[in-house]
């Protein structure tokens, strides 16, 4: 019998949960108009219907050796764990010692995955306390290798798979997920995983890794996340011919068949989790843009590679303005070269154009496009007629392999420059102040191009943003050596600071993790119904404003990943403000607390709380 009225109320509300949380609502300043309990606030006690080994084997319930004697008695696990109770600090000592014995990053990844599979609270405590180091293990750059070998190192299922054989069944399948509240979903079709291409169902490690950062960096509850793979097949011949590959062994669905598949999945998610934020991740171009265009005004969603990458890259460019003694509203004065014309490259440039237009220092969007020179795998997107008899016409759609350019890419076409100019030729012609790499082509920032850039500007801004590390357009050491140590450098994957002629040259990491956890937290706290472009722009401005003057002078553009929770708080507050300004928020505020206080108290922190067993039939 439940004697605590609060426990009775929560238990009756969670109709099909086996695990429920009891919250103290009385001193909170946030309520929600949604029809489910707000499970984001501080946990007071954890209840479960499970008993014995089922408790020990549930990573959301297990405390390992930290169960108290009274918990062991009432949960039926007395004698099933070592007799001496050891709290989390001792567990962390043991885990860290064993982690240090792992020889390679992939071994550390497997070790961390095993920890997450048996004790999520301890996993996240370890991750949060060592975020700078371990984010590189659970996500980039190590996650790239883990994705390639997913079918070889597979141990235990995590997340959900919706495949081509599940068509017509997805609305029923979604009810197999054991949690009634989901706040954030990360979904991929595995078609463009980092800079590694089509990895099919092996791409599941990307949603898992991203959501781990949502929890560790943004304070989203681990029970409220859902990683998803849409397995529509793969065109990767190596995987198709590998008998151990775990995904569907046919070529990718495409065209109307593909979009109908995604539509069925979206409908299934909306039928059970209509308030969840959906993050589209690692979808290839043009599917990435087409899906974003189709759903952004229908559901609460965004595309990480297009919008989140754009926000952090824009933050880096704005911070680089400040580092050179310029105001952030001088963006229109930059000359920007972008190497990469896929979803990430176009997305980053669209964010920069949006910001230029918002700052009001360009007369039109077309003028803003004129500040950016875009190169694809062939070279500059320019005028194919220059150098021929007819030089007056712009490049028509339908000539050779340029026929594949769409209207978004064509916005960056330079009518006054020859098509397919190489990077060094472009740099010498326009003398850029900023060069962005989103190509996935290692070494494409060659010495000639970077040295030519350094001849034209005092502090060249060099951002090779492709992941993982071996796909980077250049290394930090190369950038500083080729610019005589004058570069302002940021990369997508981590590099160490570089010593050049007795000077320590600072390396920054432009990592999407700086934006999406805070965005997700802000969406969850406000219960925003949509994700808007203004949210991403303000996210960029917020991140760009976080470095001190002394840090900027030393080459540091913004805080590192180790400060992610603090960055996420600031971003979440700004996202909440915009949600209320744009009348998209569905959570109702009461008097007495600021948005910042609400955001801080909404963040989950991994600590053990008392666990009791209840009657599952009540």
UniProtKB/TrEMBL annotation:
Belongs to the malic enzymes family. GO terms for cellular component: mitochondrion. GO terms for biological process: malate metabolic process. Its cofactor is Mn(2+); Mg(2+). Residues 116-296 form the Malic enzyme N-terminal domain. This is Malic enzyme. Gene3D superfamilies: Malic enzyme, N-terminal domain, NAD(P)-binding Rossmann-like Domain. (S)-malate binds at residues 192, 467, 511. InterPro entries: Aminoacid_DH-like_N_sf, Malic_enzyme_CS, Malic_N_dom, Malic_N_dom_sf, Malic_NAD-bd, Malic_OxRdtase, NAD(P)-bd_dom_sf. It comes from Modicella reniformis. Residues 306-580 form the Malic enzyme NAD-binding domain. A divalent metal cation binds at residues 281-282, 305. Divalent metal cations. Prefers magnesium or manganese. One of its GO terms (molecular function) is malate dehydrogenase (decarboxylating) (NAD+) activity. The active site is at residues 139, 210. Keywords: Metal-binding, Oxidoreductase. Pfam families: malic, Malic_M.
């Amino acid at each position: 019998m439940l004697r605590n009225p609060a426990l009775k109320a929560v238990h009756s509300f969670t109709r099909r949960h086996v695990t429920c949380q009891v919250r103290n609502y009385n001193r909170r300043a946030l309520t929600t108009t949604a029809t489910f309990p707000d499970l984001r606030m501080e946990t007071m006690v954890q209840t479960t219907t499970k008993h014995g080994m089922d408790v020990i084997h549930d990573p959301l319930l297990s405390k390992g050796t930290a169960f108290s004697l009274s918990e062991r008695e009432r949960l039926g696990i007395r004698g099933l764990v070592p007799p001496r109770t050891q709290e989390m600090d001792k567990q962390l000592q043991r885990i860290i010692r064993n982690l240090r014995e792992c020889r390679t990053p992939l071994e550390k990844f497997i070790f961390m995955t095993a920890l997450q599979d048996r004790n999520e609270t301890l996993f996240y405590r370890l991750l949060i306390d060592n975020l700078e180091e371990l984010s590189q293990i659970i996500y980039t750059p190590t996650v790239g290798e883990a994705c390639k070998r997913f079918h070889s190192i597979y141990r235990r299922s995590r997340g959900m798979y919706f495949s081509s054989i599940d068509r017509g069944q997805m609305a029923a399948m979604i009810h197999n997920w054991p949690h009634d509240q989901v706040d954030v979903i990360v979904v991929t079709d595995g078609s463009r995983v980092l800079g590694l291409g089509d990895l099919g169902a092996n791409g599941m490690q990307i949603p898992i890794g991203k959501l781990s950062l949502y929890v560790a960096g943004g304070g989203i509850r681990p029970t409220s996340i859902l990683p998803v793979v849409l397995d529509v097949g793969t065109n990767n011949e190596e995987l198709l011919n590998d008998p151990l590959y775990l995904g569907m062994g046919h070529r990718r669905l495409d065209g109307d068949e593909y979009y109908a598949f995604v539509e069925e999945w979206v409908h299934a998610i909306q039928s059970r989790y209509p308030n969840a934020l959906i993050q589209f991740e690692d979808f290839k171009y043009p599917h990435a843009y087409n899906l974003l265009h189709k759903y952004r005004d229908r559901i609460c969603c965004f595309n990480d590679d297009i919008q989140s990458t754009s926000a952090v890259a824009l933050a880096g460019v704005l911070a680089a303005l400040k580092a050179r003694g310029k105001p952030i509203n001088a963006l229109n004065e930059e000359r920007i070269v972008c190497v990469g014309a896929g979803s990430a490259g176009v997305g980053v440039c669209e964010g920069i154009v949006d910001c230029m237009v918002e700052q009001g220092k360009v007369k039109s969007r077309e003028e803003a496009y004129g500040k950016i020179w875009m190169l694809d795998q062939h070279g500059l997107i320019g005028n194919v007629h220059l150098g021929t008899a007819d030089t007056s016409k712009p490049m028509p759609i339908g000539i050779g392999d340029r026929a594949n350019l769409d209207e978004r890419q064509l916005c960056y076409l330079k009518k006054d420059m020859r098509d397919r100019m190489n990077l060094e030729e472009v740099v010498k012609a326009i003398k850029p102040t900023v060069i962005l790499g989103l190509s996935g082509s290692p070494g494409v920032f060659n010495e000639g191009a970077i040295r030519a850039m350094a001849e034209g500007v005092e502090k060249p801004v060099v951002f090779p943003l492709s992941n993982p590390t071996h796909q980077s357009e250049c290394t930090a050491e190369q950038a500083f050596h080729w610019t005589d140590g004058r570069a302002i450098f940021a990369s997508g994957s981590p590099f160490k600071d570089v010593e050049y002629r007795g000077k320590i040259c600072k390396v920054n990491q432009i990592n999407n993790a700086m934006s999406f956890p805070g965005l997700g937290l802000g969406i969850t706290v406000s219960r925003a119904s949509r994700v808007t472009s203004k949210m991403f722009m303000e996210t960029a401005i917020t991140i760009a404003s976080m470095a001190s003057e002394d840090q900027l002078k030393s080459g540091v553009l913004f805080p590192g990943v180790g400060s992610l929770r603090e960055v996420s708080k600031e971003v979440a507050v700004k996202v909440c403000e915009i949600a209320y300004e744009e009348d998209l928020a569905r959570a109702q505020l009461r008097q007495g607390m600021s948005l910042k206080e609400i955001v801080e108290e909404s963040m989950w922190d991994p600590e053990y709380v008392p666990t009791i067993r209840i009657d599952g039939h009540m």
